[in-house]
Amino acid sequence: MGKRYMAAVRAPPLAVSTTGWGVDMRMFGILRFVTDSSVVQFLGFFATMLLIVALSMLVGAIQHRWCATGLLTAAASVVVIGGLAATLVTWTRSWSSLWSWIVDASPTTTLVVLPLLVTAVCVGAT
Length: 126
Hints:
Elements: H1 2-10, H2 14-17, H3 20-24, H4 38-91, H5 95-104, H6 107-125
Helix pairs in contact: 4-6
């Protein structure tokens, strides 16, 4: 019994011991390339997971209220609105400004604040 306990205590983290599920995947290490702050990394993952939950709640609410018609309408609306937004940015020749804003913004803004704003909109719409 003691040997098994000691082996469990000395075992490396799951991602290291499984080598990223056989494909050298490093899911929770990706934000180290963006920021050195462990607080921003944690908040970035937390905000991303909250965003996924909020989007799932919104899709579930749309499906529950309007069934397949609502889901198809919502998907078509996202495609049309995204296309119109891309057309507007292209027409005004603002792509370089948009990309420079994204590159120059702090990691806290892009990893935490923006996902939390979208999360709030999704929860409000739900």
